[in-house]
Design a protein that fits this description.
Blueprint (H helix, E strand, L loop, with lengths): L5 H4 L16 E2 L11 H8 L3 H5 L7 H11 L6 E4 L1 H13 L20 H4 L4 E6 L4 H9 L3 E5 L10 H7 L2 E7 L11 H11 L4 E5 L23 E6 L12 E5 L1 H10 L7 H12 L1 H24 L3 E2 L6 E5 L9 H10 L2 E2 L12 E4 L3 H15 L1
Parallel strand pairs: 1-11, 3-4, 3-5, 5-6, 6-7
Antiparallel strand pairs: 2-8, 7-8, 9-10, 10-12
Bound molecules: pyridoxal-5'-phosphate (PLP).
Length: 383
């Protein structure tokens, strides 16, 4: 007997990148920061007392929210702390998108599509650009909300008519990842602002800034009250920029009304006392994280140049990864074959078997030694 809801039965679960447990691998597949977190983070965790472990944690991570507000020049009621950026995404989908009424799935002879007119137009839907983070459609499916994918332009930019198309599709929440994953392209602030403005009053624009620490600018200016936007939400993650993927801590920044809506729906104690202490210390010691951002950016430039010298096409990236297309033809190995050969050598990169990405590899920028190991292996495979 299967007890799950129909949409869960039909669900294809999210596939995380491989997480090999051996330590002797070069792991350039899930965009972790190759440098350790600030020592202040570990000190903060060690300083947590048995007494505070005995008690429930501050429900809304107040100390962390104040630290984040200070760091970004906002007020604490514009910040929500979450169990990784992923929890913020899940919250946003559940708070802003409508689940389809179960009758939407039943055949209705009047329309012949099985959907009521409102559902056919996608009312209450999630709209994303394609390709993008593959968790978004999974979250939509779990919530049983309609999801629409608007293809990105060839250079991975957001199409100029994204907002009107989203609205015509009944959008309540649009997600744009910036810098884009998996290409690393940075969309301009003007373009994001025009999307937000066109959606205002009808839908929320979430800018997923999981990788923004490696970019030249962020979308924080959109939260400036002078812009008059009340529908912008920014996602931040401590996984990449702060070397804390194992901690599971992220946060949202946005208009206080959006944050208040999400606070109503979050778990009472969604972040624990250890992670709150660590995350607060991480933000209070941003200068140390900044050193890792600079090192990653330097290596990104070097690895890009080295790959281009070998005939790869590399999308300009403002992130901690690059999307590289190996040279084709003349018996050269395909991206998939390269991915598999690298794996046999304990070198992990990411391969996406999907449209527009099948001929590419997404490579996380590692330490100079890790990057050299990759470049050496690629050189050997090309021979
Ligand atoms: C585009 C994007 N957004 C959000 C996240 C969520 O990150 P986390 O839950 O580790 O904070 C990730 C993680 O890989 C990501 O790639």
């Amino acid at each position: 007997m299967a007890y799950e809801r129909d949409n869960i039965r039909a669900l294809t679960a999210y596939t995380p990148g491989e997480q090999p447990q051996e330590t002797k691998v070069v792991k350039l597949n899930t965009n972790e920061n190759p440098y350790p977190p600030s020592p202040a983070v570990l000190e903060a965790v060690r300083a947590v007392s048995a007494e505070s472990l005995r008690r429930y944690p501050p429900p809304s991570a107040e100390t962390f929210r104040r630290a984040a507000a200070r760091a970004h020049g906002l007020s604490p009621d514009q910040v929500i702390a979450t169990n990784g950026g992923d929890e913020l995404l899940r919250l946003a989908v559940t708070v802003f998108c409508d689940p389809r009424p179960s009758s939407a799935l039943a055949p209705t002879p009047a329309t012949g599509t099985g959907l009521r007119p409102a559902q056919r137009h996608g009312a209450g839907s999630l709209v994303m650009t394609e390709p993008s983070y593959s968790l978004y459609p999974v979250l939509a499916d779990i919530h049983d909300t309609l999801i629409h994918r608007v293809p990105l332009n060839d250079d991975w930019s957001v199409p100029a008519d994204f907002a009107p198309r989203a609205l015509a599709l009944g959008c309540r929440l649009a997600i744009i990842v910036n810098p884009h994953a998996p290409s690393g392209r940075l969309e301009s602030l003007e373009s994001l602002e025009s999307v937000a403005r066109a959606l205002q009053g009808q839908a929320v624009l979430m800018v997923d800034e999981a990788y923004v620490d490696f970019a030249t600018r962020d979308a924080l200016p959109l939260l400036d009250p002078s812009r008059g936007l009340d529908n912008v939400l920014l996602l931040r993650s401590l996984s990449k920029g702060y070397s804390l993927a194992g901690l599971r801590f992220g946060y949202g920044l946005g208009h206080a009304n959006l944050i208040a809506s999400m606070n109503k729906a979050k778990d009472s104690y969604n972040t624990d006392i250890l992670s709150q202490a660590a995350a607060t210390a991480a933000l209070e010691h941003r200068d140390e994280a900044r050193k890792s951002w600079a090192a990653v950016i330097g290596e990104r430039t070097r690895v890009t140049a080295e790959l281009e010298r070998r005939g790869y096409r590399v999308s300009p990236s403002q992130s901690n990864f690059i999307l590289a297309t190996p040279p084709a033809g003349g018996g050269a190995p395909t991206a998939k074959a390269i991915y598999e050969s690298l794996k046999q050598r304990s070198l992990f990169v990411r391969y996406f078997d999907q449209d527009r990405l099948r001929d590419k590899l997404r490579i996380t920028i590692g330490t100079p030694a890790e990057n050299n190991a990759l470049l050496t292996a690629l050189g050997e495979l090309a021979r």
